[in-house]
Backbone:
């Protein structure tokens, strides 16, 4: 497919992106993709997604805190990410209470323990992947829009009234944002702070419909050898 070219006012665009970053740091969140986004090719989107996918298997350890309008809970957990599209997470509360785990390939679960392990934490798979700083490729037939200026790239997938939007900024204080709408309704927004090495430092998922918020603080990010096949098997009860 031939890459499509488009013209934008770069000075105005850079100013607009700066507003997005400032808005995302406090108060109401700013838009993920600017109005100036234009049609782009699947090859362009693949080039933007690629840097978000780790080149080597990763073991991420984190603290988590979940809050809604009724209660809050927290604990520790880990995520094992095997490129290009496999992830296993394990989380538990204090002293190993209320342990949950799941293994995911792409946008579907191999298994979950308990059955609602994913649903009770995140509303869908793209937002789950975004919490570890990874963007998903678009599905077949999606309309693709995007732009890139300076160190920031933003892009959108549109299928009917459903949209997935991403924005990624590099540098010493990088930032990755994902926002998902279904039938035009916002179901969640994930914002991940990245270190100079591109590894996640912290993540926040906001779900407005509950309302609820999940915060992850990453304690370590380690490149490891490929995981043993047993990692992808359900936990023994």
Residues:
């Amino acid at each position: 497919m031939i890459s499509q070219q488009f013209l934008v006012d770069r000075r105005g665009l850079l100013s607009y992106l700066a507003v997005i970053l400032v808005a995302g740091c406090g108060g109401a969140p700013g838009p993920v993709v600017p109005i100036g986004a234009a049609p782009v090719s699947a090859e362009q989107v693949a080039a933007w997604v690629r840097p978000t996918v780790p080149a080597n298997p990763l073991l991420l350890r984190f603290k988590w805190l979940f809050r809604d309008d009724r209660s809050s809970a927290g604990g520790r957990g880990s995520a094992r990410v095997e490129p290009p599209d496999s992830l296993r997470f394990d989380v538990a509360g204090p002293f190993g209470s209320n342990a949950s785990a799941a293994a995911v390939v792409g946008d579907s679960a191999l298994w979950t323990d308990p059955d609602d392990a994913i649903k009770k934490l995140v509303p869908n798979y793209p937002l789950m992947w975004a919490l570890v700083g990874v963007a998903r490729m678009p599905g077949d037939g999606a309309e693709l829009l995007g732009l890139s200026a300076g160190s920031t790239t933003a892009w959108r997938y549109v299928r009917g009234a459903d949209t997935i939007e991403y924005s990624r900024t590099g540098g010493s204080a990088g930032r990755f944002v994902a926002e998902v709408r279904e039938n035009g309704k916002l179901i969640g927004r994930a914002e991940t702070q990245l270190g100079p090495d591109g590894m996640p430092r912290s993540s926040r998922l906001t779900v407005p419909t509950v309302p609820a918020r999940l915060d992850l603080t990453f304690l370590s990010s380690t490149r490891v050898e490929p995981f043993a096949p047993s990692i992808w098997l359900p936990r023994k009860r």
Summary: The two ends are 49 Å apart (CA to CA). Confidence is low (pLDDT under 50) at residues 1-26. The longest strand covers residues 212-223. DSSP finds three helices and 13 strands in the chain.
